[in-house]
Amino acid sequence: MKKIKVALAGVGNCASSLVQTLHHYGNLTDVGEGAGLAHPMLGNYAVSDIEIVAAFDVNKQKVGQDLSKAIFAKPNNAPKFTEMPITKIMVQRGPTLDGIPTELNELVEESDAKPADVAKQLEESGAQILVGLLPSGANDATLFYAEEALKAGCGYINTSPVFLACNREWAQRFTDRKVPLVGDDLMSQIGATALHRALLDFLVKRGVRIIESYQLDVGGGTESLESLHRARDQKRSMKTNIVSTEIPYEVPVTAGSTDYVYFLGNRRESYFYLQGRYVGDADFKIDLRLVSQDAPNSTSILLDVIRGVQIGIDRGFAGPIDAVCSYGFKAPPRPYPLSLSETIFEHFIRSTRPV
Ligand SMILES: NC(=O)c1ccc[n+]([C@@H]2O[C@H](COP(=O)([O-])OP(=O)(O)OC[C@H]3O[C@@H](n4cnc5c(N)ncnc54)[C@H](O)[C@@H]3O)[C@@H](O)[C@H]2O)c1
User: Fold this and answer.
1) Considering the entire predicted model, what is its pTM?
2) Ligand 1 pocket: which of 8, 13, 305 to mutate (most atoms <8 Å of CB)?
3) Smaller CB count within 10 Å for the chain: N or C?
4) Which atom belonging to ligand 1 lies closest to the Cα atom of 96?
């Protein structure tokens, strides 16, 4: 199988976990069950078919470093689970724009290098897909990299809670350029949103009447600090909307990141409350706590999304690919309940139909 050439905009915690996973499973064409991945193989693509060919960041500790070192530079705190060999991919300086909010001033020193011509570097690297792994509140930076992807003719994956795939104009521009665009706001493998949706799906399918429910979480990564300030309302509305798709009637639901606790490191603690009634007006309450590592929680879905986009490219898809968006993201252009979005995605992967 040919390699899927990918560039990264943002070498933060999600990038760290992704790069480590690609190395960890790198020599295996069949990773096999039990590896923690939803799809060791997706279509004809193994994890080892994904190759990082370029990376951009703005942090002085990361720019000019080999990717194998940059992924462990502060303030990244994603768990280290493999020894990385030199990758020969130097992290290049992207323009900062709104990438470093004042809340991160004490944690991030901006690189004094001159920003690279991102579109040119994408072209020279041979990247087919640019993965935007930018901070939650970095709207301008996200739009900048999407623009560079368009110039270079790359597909764009928007993991941030910025409306891009959901924005008609952007969707049309990618369609016209004949390259895919997927987003918005990646959904973790067993993150709070996915688990909350699965619990509600279970209860609704068992005939229970849901009365009210919330999901709140705390974390210690820079992402949690960002979500607390600039992206709080946006994240909350995206999460609440997608969680509500699981309940076929109106119910008070709140879902959102709430706070930053620095000593949690990359750990995230999510609290769930669900109340409902079943036969005879009998009522029940569920209180749950999920403790997870944030960055690795993004990796399995991201690997699926990257390979899903490549399958889309192979078949001539352009603009938003609904099957990939609704499977991998919290704010897709067309939201479906979780189990239906998984079925649609599997169908898309199995189908051999070109556009
Ligand atoms: N489980 C998860 O971690 C998860 C789940 C869903 C969505 N996401 C989304 O993924 C994105 C990345 O998350 P993360 O935890 O890796 O964030 P992070 O804060 O660890 O990393 C962001 C990186 O982007 C860099 N950056 C900032 N401005 C830049 C610019 N202009 N150009 C290039 N790089 C720039 C930062 O220096 C940092 O290295 C976020 O938008 C988050 O909402 C993450």
Assistant:
1) 0.95
2) 13
3) C
4) 31
